[in-house]
Target: Tyrosine decarboxylase
Amino acid sequence: MTAGSGTLNQNPPAVTPPPCMNLLDADEFRLRGQQVINFIADYWCRMGDYPVRPNVTPGFLRDELPTNAPPMPEPDAWDSALQDLRDLILPGMTHWQSPRHFAHFPASSSTAGALGEALIAGINVVPFTWAASPAAAELEMVVVDWLGKALHLPESLLFAGGGGGTLLGTSCEAILCTLVAARDRKLAEVGWRSIGDLVVYCSDQTHFSFRKAARIAGIQRGHVREIPTSLEDMFALSPAALKAAMQADVDAGLIPLFLCATVGTTQTTAVDPIRGLCPVAATHGLWVHVDAAYAGSALVCPEFSHVVDGVEAVDSFSMNAHKWLLANNDCCALWVKKPAALVAALGTEQEYILKDAGAEGHDVVDYKDWTMTLTRRFRVLKLWLMLRCYGVEGLRGHIRSHVRMAAMFEELVRDDARFEVVTDRHFALVCFRLLSTDRLGGEKKANELNRRLLEEVNAATLGPYMSAANAGGIYMLRCAVGSTLTEDRHVREAWKVVREQATSLLRKMQILRV
Model:
């Protein structure tokens, strides 16, 4: 616009046109695509050459890169960018696909998952409604039912049984979406002025994303009840404690709203007893959501079905297929018993450009109404490809191999009298610690001792990368087996490093106390 005129300037200043570029040239794509695939394959083959965690300090990469983007295309841009990726960026990465990465729950990768991501990027649709990409919407409906059946979920959570599912980015989104749906459903009953009286419940082991979601959903900070757990109950949420907490809130004039139960907590993989919790929650009409971000993948194996005993009574269930089920980031599956509750809370009045006369009167799903975002990825394509390439039996073999390796590590720990396994191993995480003798300070010094042990283990060159939990005041080391590339030898080598560092540490401490 010209100043003060309110009209568009019909004669913008002349600019030098950029060089002509064919941005979607098939031959160029074939050439560069092969380069990228070879680069990734070489990275996987050389994974063992990298320390799992880099030895860098803040600013190491910023100091190496220019402060401004290139004004014009760089000569040999692809080759030089891949060289910089190899020489500057990869050495500064934490290598989540490393077979020696035992610190976190896995971000699992597979050939089908990675190439599925390439297909998603290449096709690049935005399936926010059925009309925006009919095949994408219907494929998602079919595949989330496939996955739900493979995980032995009740039919009431599937499209086939009146429920339904969708694919989101993370469990954080799933928790927020279901919490907003529960909030709106409750406030429709009691009135919107009561939003300040709503209370939500979880255990002190529930992932912090639940507390974050509660804040976003308008729940007062003081109305998130983190119910204490104990080692005696393996840090699982007690139905009796939940009942007491809810009754106290009702007596205070507050309104119980939502329970987030966890199957496989982050710190120790504790399993909240769904069958015991649901009847307690039902007495005050709570929405019950099960967060099985990590452990949900294990349900593909029938021998783990008992950990969700009673799941037919829950309102929603979510798991991350990208954590342990080979789907590559990001891919969270959410199922709900009553999809209408999600649509009532998150749905939008369609604008004219989103309407499609051909879809009217048909039972179609517009997935924009199931989540917070309008733009969404064609995530189902990689999940569909993965299920076809590996099959349910292939996924079971993948999970069982990690569980077997974790059991092997657990046995190695138990065979060394200096150590103890702190919590029951439910899946592929072993929580263990080095025992402190009276000579070294006993139980009072045990946490400090294990903190030092973890530092020594993670400092070992090309050694394992582990993490710690602190539950019930007990500091313990975590060994989470889950990388697609991990083999028995990596687990045995990890234990060898732990033993050697423990011996060295104990020897140093004994000398200091002589």
